[in-house]
Amino acid sequence: MKFIDLLTALLMKFIDLLFAPLSGTLRRMQDSVGLAPPTAAMLATEDLNACPLLRRLPVLKDKIAYRALGDRFPTPVHETSVSSESGAELHFFVKREDLSSTLYGGNKVRTLQFQLAIIEARLEAGEPDVLPLTVIGTWGSNQCVATAVHAAHAIPSLLPTLNVALLEPEVADIDNTLNVLSVLSVGRTLPLLSPLHSLAAIMRAAFWGRGTVLTMGGNSPSGCLGQVSAMLELAEQIESGDAADPDRIYVAMGSSCTVSGLIIGCALSRRLGLRAFESPRFRVCGVIIHHHIAAIQRRLDFHRRWTSFPCSIGQTIRATCAELARLGGPDVTAEALELLATQVIINDDAQLCGKYGGHSTLSRSASQRYDAGGRTYSVEKRSGQRVEETPLWLCGHFVAKPFAALLADLEGCSRTANGEPPLRCLLWQTKSAVQPRGRTDEWARLHSMPRKLREWAAEGPAESRLRPGKVDPFGGGPEDYRQMMTEVPLD
């Protein structure tokens, strides 16, 4: 072993020991949901073949609980055009996870398909101390909205309340504020804004088994399996000719649940012989959206080297693949880790990442270019006619950052053309196209929240010209923002 390799190994061992308490806590949180077989009602009412993972691995059908949750699967792959800085048109594809549900779409629907079903199955089996359920996120968390909405829709009688642990304020942005309002519009939610209250609920669930906790971004083996299924779905669309085989897939990286699932899904699709992801230029491009994680990645290659630390890509891959194999599926750990080493680009650029929760200068500029004249459309197979589709919601918190990276790579490719065709790029659209508003008066609940949150809400600008509005608890009213929200039948 080279001296530098030995030094690195010793450093990583020291870091593992230093952060052992945090690592152990996160691992207990990851394990909180666990796994459970489906209920008789699930087997009788759910179309399990509609889930790509269960369809391709039927041995799993009676091993893991599943609920579809969404109502538009497979999510389509659309085309998008945006003008480059030089005025030329740039073309790319979009996996429309944002359209997966008319209640609330985005990538977290897949994460919850197994997680909420497992919680339902554990409750139906009479398992003690499954409740209360606590979901963890920050003030603008998509995970918190998705859990509140889909738990209220899928298991309302079993889940009387949902703890929503909002751990830290984020950059003031109306998209983040709207997510808080969506959570407040679901009456069964109990926001935990005090760090002590949040920590108490999390510790009770993680260490004493009194309740269940959903980790940041839903990062757990069951949540990650939902993203594996999404990647299998894309592989099937590619094989059937409904989607082009991409050279690069761009995805936001927060908890690493989604990107880890895409990597495992790619490895699994190859193991199953699906004709997809065959380009010699194929890469999964994960763009880190938290400035602290980006800094750690730049210095220590956190996601590849910290393979035992929860929420690193390496650890998430290992944990998820181990559970998949334990359930009777193939063990693709080696293939997935090889993909991580050779076909995954982790973008930790500080200028692109900016500050967690809001736009960087680069992501704001990219999203403004789309808002000014970008077009998203489907193409009729027979006629070749373009049909305008729902515009992309490019939030500064998440998806605008991989979008900016995608545009930069397309422009760089066109400037340095050396006879190769342009990159065929695909954006994994994780932000829901629907901003839900349940039956509870979110405006009234906002006024019962601490002043710090209300001041933060008032500071948040509307970054997109496609979605003008404001939230001003001190001088405005709900009519200033409700045009951006969609009424959904949830109490």
Notes on the structure:
This protein is α/β, with parallel strands linked by helices. It has two domains: 55-104 and 221-428, Rossmann fold (3-Layer(aba) Sandwich), CATH 3.40.50.1100; 119-220 and 445-487, no CATH class. Helices cover 43% and strands 13% of the residues. The protein contains 19 helices and 14 strands. The strands form three sheets. The chain has an eight-stranded mixed beta sheet with strand order 9-8-7-12-2-1-10-11, sandwiched between helices. Helix 10 crosses helix 13 (313-326). The longest helix has 20 residues, at 221-240. The model has no long low-confidence stretch (mean pLDDT 94).
List keywords for this structure.
eight-stranded mixed beta sheet, alpha/beta, Rossmann fold, four-stranded parallel beta sheet
How do the helices and strands line up, and which of them pair or pack?
Layout: H1 3-18, H2 20-30, H3 40-45, H4 52-56, E1 77-83, E2 89-95, H5 108-124, E3 133-137, H6 142-154, E4 162-166, H7 174-184, E5 189-192, H8 195-208, E6 212-214, H9 221-240, E7 248-253, H10 257-271, E8 283-288, H11 291-300, H12 302-305, H13 313-326, H14 333-342, E9 344-347, H15 350-353, H16 361-373, E10 375-379, E11 386-388, H17 400-415, E12 425-428, E13 436-437, H18 442-446, H19 451-459, E14 486-487
Parallel strand pairs: 2-12, 3-4, 3-6, 4-5, 7-8, 7-12, 8-9, 13-14
Antiparallel strand pairs: 1-2, 1-10, 10-11
Cofactor: pyridoxal 5'-phosphate
Domain Tryptophan synthase beta chain-like PALP: 73-287
InterPro entries: ACCD_DCysDesulf (IPR027278), TrpB-like_PALP (IPR001926), TrpB-like_PALP_sf (IPR036052)
